[in-house]
């Protein structure tokens, strides 16, 4: 079965890519399998200077999910270009660079350096990290700021820009339309929901950052609903994510309106999850009567005129 | 290539209060030969519990691996319910263990606290086989929690302390260590306050094994970092799962 | 151990109560155990006239959670007073009536009839039902509307009024402060998150209402974080809920800032869950070093001056 | 008082494609005597799968209960993996079954489709013991899916249809029923389109068993309602879990 799918800047052998922050810069999982198998690779967020991130503990487990408050630890955009991307460029797999910053200037600097490196096929604008005081979520909850940032990043970037949306907002459709109007080539959704877990001994949050981002199967219904709704109001493709663990989940995302599907937390549960999903996709799709990825997307509700819009946001 | 395996439970025994010894069998064991490395265990089908649990190798014999763990929460409780014949999905061996290469004819101190004790047993066996003289100091909360004393005694001297004095010497491992002389090298594993006290107390070269909550366990998620002591270190941090869990005592900041 | 706790209008033997919509009007679960064991009972939402609710399917399972789109089916406030409440009044357990409506007039009518019935100890103002086009969520996402509604309902009610908040908003703290200022005697939180699940055969949502409310263990981290944050900015008590299944969960809610804890979805998994939790509470609390419910609440972060506010909402 | 019980798996057999017969043992069985009632099974520890699964009683013998189910998704897949000795948490008996009281010496038609067949077996046994004459029509998709034909044959006539003609008569149960005469009463269980067709076709009194996705299974959550045909009905709806799953054929709207 033909699993290939083409998105702005990304010629993908299949619709499966690891999600940002759950795959480092690729080296670790290349010890488990050949990264050429992947549709694309999203790398950990890059910022202007290196960041150490939040104090530990940075992760906690929840029912069918986990919280993380890594805090965008990364060696900084220059080091990423010099030391991390050359390794990834040895694979025939497009790389998406997730970019973050505290200010518009930092975002545009990072975007410029990465897009000029020639080593990445697309940028993913992270305006949805719930784990840093600055540099992310304030852009992700205000459509005007988000649109302005998108426009600036687009203007310095020679590769397509996907904007990664936060679910922690009341008006996701408004946000999606704003960044589409500002020139976004695609959307990534969803980033994590904000959550917390307490240590029953101390009564204090387990994460030193107190709150963290909730990911994993627990959030899939929230992500599916958001993608279903947003895909009806924008014309740019969506990279869907949130709790994907198997080929059936991938099909659900495609039917909800996503054009490619990222796998985050599941890499931790099963380091081989991405190639296992890719292997299972042909049989799973044909079990449900689909003969290609394109066909799933075409048959998804967003192409169904009878699929009426949901009025509530 | 690293991989995962469904290892099979050979035997499970309760060896102290809430503490279990579990023997697993599988191919992966053949790659395990570095004491201090850990295995990463999937809990159930990994859907309710999305994170694996890191547990140290306590012993390796042919294709059989021994781990010793204490019930702390849902994951270790699930582990304790496994019976002979059950399968447990394992990633292993992960991380960097205690350096033992070319160490012989040395006076070595092993310091273990609570469930930090298990990896020292596999280490001790190896160091003893390489012709070293071992002294082990094991600290536990209370008598009920003590395990493996006899095993360590087979490797050399072994002193047990309990915080409440219900067994062995009363107090902390550090109370005992201060009396030990002629140690050339030490290895320690246990709670961070213990590691801190021990590494401040002893000046000979030492290696300590750290714990931190982990996401991936393989170096990809930055969940388990700690800072380097050397402010000029290029990265400034270490990942416990990948660079550790064992570090030279003077390499990383203990908090 | 003394498990008793006193909240406005509610003298509770223990902090455990079933959540609205998950316990009908009590009769069904009274076949499993004596309802006198419960701290309180929250009944299914009442509206002015009877409502049939949404077409079926109305529920779907998700990882560690479920979606529901019942659509506020109920026989209407008069029938509830005449046919349902008399049964509950045979128990020595306070009853909280959950009230809903499409308009302020409907809400106040329902509130008036219930509070005048003398059969309920408190009202729970449901401004957070995600499953009806009108009558709920629009009040729950606009602080001005919510405050106005709260004020009107308070003015006709002779029993305390708890306002049940929706998590589907960007500014929950603003909402909480608005309804507190409008006279709410307490808060209930959280209602369900909006989610969706697709049928892989048809590509369409499983629920006939398309979206549904996500409840169960999956949402607990979101609820804990919201209660932790809101309890720092209001002075009224909070009835916490979302994914509670055991005594440890109850302790986590108390430490997060709740004063009583409601159990919803878990009743479906285990019809005896409420009495089982109540039985387990004394041992669980003392295992963690607490000697009463009051003590957990006192030791919770909201009474800890060092527990600094979280700036992000 | 209603309660739940950890029932013990006695035996599990695959009896057709994706279709399993499971025998459970427990005290609760002693309360089961009404064919058409259902049991509500917890999947695993109920944390990943928070909803129970409703399955009809297919037979009851002393303290042993038989159910027959088809693998449809994660819950039934989990069920199919249970082995003798495993425990499954069960609520039962729930709902109202097929009325059999004082029915005797009657020509009865049983109509079953797919996994709607199992409850009819227990019903048929009971009706036969009460001195009725039974004719059973069972519809399946295809040959591989057929089960229990022999058992029903022991109770009276039994005609099997398959949609694809790979076994028995080709077509739907309704094709067969149209040729049956002298029926005084019928009981049907199967997919809604089948129930609809059957109840339109036959004019003698009949009872049908409905399915709907359930939350509580006991009448508390309003997940499983259907409308009454009688527009003047006081409530206007029925809860399938509590008022049903069996209804007189003319009581509720089939959609
Ligand atoms: C490298 C390493 C080696 C270890 N070796 C052993 C050993 O040999 N024997 C032993 O008994 N324990 C060992 N531990 C600690 C062990 O991993 C935890 O006790 C265990 O993960 C607790 O899981 P739980 O589900 O029972 O507890 P929960 O508290 O329910 O666990 C919830 C989450 O927190 C994490 N977590 C909780 N406590 C710890 C901790 N102390 N360290 C790391 N993660 C934690 C869990 O992994 C899980 O993700 C080791 C930890 C590390 C990092
Ligand atoms: C009163 C009653 C009696 C039944 N008796 C039988 C029987 O004897 N044999 C048999 O094979 N099946 C029977 N069913 C159908 C059976 O309940 C479903 O096939 C089963 O719940 C599917 O669960 P799953 O986890 O495998 O599938 P999933 O699709 O993964 O289930 C997800 C959720 O949907 C619900 N669900 C899915 N399909 C159905 C359905 N058709 N009816 C009700 N809920 C559904 C599940 O209960 C669960 O909550 C009966 C249903 C009802 C209502
Ligand atoms: C440990 C961890 C780190 C993450 N880091 C980033 C990040 O740097 N940038 C980003 O845009 N998203 C980050 N995310 C969010 C994921 O990319 C993804 O959107 C989210 O986890 C939902 O997918 P999942 O449920 O498959 O994990 C991170 C998630 C996790 C669990
Ligand atoms: C089937 C169902 C019906 C519900 N009906 C109501 C309702 O009528 N009014 C209301 O305020 N909340 C309603 N809720 C929300 C619950 O009261 C509760 O806030 C939510 O389910 C979270 O708790 P839980 O995770 O313990 O279920 C309903 C929830 C479920 C699952
Ligand atoms: S646990 Fe992921 S980097 Fe160490
Ligand atoms: S399933 Fe809850 S009322 Fe029927």
UniProtKB/TrEMBL annotation, chains A, C:
Q: Does the keyword Translocase apply?
A: no
Q: Which residues bind FMN?
A: 20, 44-45, 98, 126, 164, 190, 216, 242-243, 264-265
The entry's substrate-binding residues are: 44, 68-72, 126, 191-192
State the UniProt keywords alphabetically: Cytoplasm, Flavoprotein, FMN, NAD, Oxidoreductase, Pyrimidine biosynthesis
Enumerate the cofactors the protein uses.
FMN
Quote the EC number. Answer: 1.3.-.-
Superkingdom classification of source: Bacteria
As for subcellular location, the record says:
Cytoplasm
Question: Where does the UniProt entry say this protein principally localizes?
Answer: cytoplasm
The record's section on InterPro entries has:
Aldolase_TIM, DHO_dehydrogenase, DHOD_1B, Dihydroorotate_DH_1, Dihydroorotate_DH_1_2, Dihydroorotate_DH_cat, Dihydroorotate_DH_CS, Dihydroorotate_DH_I
Q: Any idea what job this protein has?
A: Catalyzes the conversion of dihydroorotate to orotate with NAD(+) as electron acceptor.
Q: What is this protein called?
A: Dihydroorotate dehydrogenase
Native organism: Pontibacillus salicampi
Its ancestry begins with:
Bacteria, Bacillati, Bacillota, Bacilli, Bacillales
TrEMBL record, chains B, D:
- Residues binding FAD are 53-56, 68-70, 75-76
What positions does the domain FAD-binding FR-type occupy? 2-100
**Which residues bind [2Fe-2S] cluster per the record?**
216, 221, 224, 241
HAMAP family, per the entry: DHODB_Fe_S_bind
Keyword annotations of the record? 2Fe-2S, Electron transport, FAD, Flavoprotein, Iron, Iron-sulfur, Metal-binding, Pyrimidine biosynthesis, Transport
Pathway assigned to this chain's UniProt record: Pyrimidine metabolism; UMP biosynthesis via de novo pathway; orotate from (S)-dihydroorotate (NAD(+) route): step 1/1
| Gene3D superfamilies in the cross-refs | Dihydroorotate dehydrogenase, electron transfer subunit, Nucleotide-binding domain of ferredoxin-NADP reductase (FNR) module, Translation factors
Cofactor descriptive note = Binds 1 FAD per subunit.
Task of the protein: Responsible for channeling the electrons from the oxidation of dihydroorotate from the FMN redox center in the PyrD type B subunit to the ultimate electron acceptor NAD(+).
* UniProt xrefs under InterPro entries: Cyt_c3_hydrogenase_gsu (IPR012165), Dihydroorotate_DH_ele_sf (IPR037117), Dihydroorotate_DH_Fe-S-bd (IPR019480), Dihydroorotate_DHASE_ETsu (IPR023455), FAD-bd_FR_type (IPR017927), FNR_nucleotide-bd (IPR039261), OxRdtase_FAD/NAD-bd (IPR001433), PyrK_electron_transfer (IPR050353)
Task: Name the gene behind this protein.
Answer: pyrK
What subunit structure does UniProt give?
Heterotetramer of 2 PyrK and 2 PyrD type B subunits.
Task: Name what cofactor the protein needs.
Answer: FAD; [2Fe-2S] cluster
PANTHER family assigned to the protein according to its UniProt record, in alphabetical order: DIHYDROOROTATE DEHYDROGENASE B (NAD(+)), ELECTRON TRANSFER SUBUNIT, DIHYDROOROTATE DEHYDROGENASE B (NAD(+)), ELECTRON TRANSFER SUBUNIT-RELATED
Annotated protein name in UniProt: Dihydroorotate dehydrogenase B (NAD(+)), electron transfer subunit
The record lists the organism as Pontibacillus salicampi
Q: Which family does it belong to?
A: Belongs to the PyrK family.
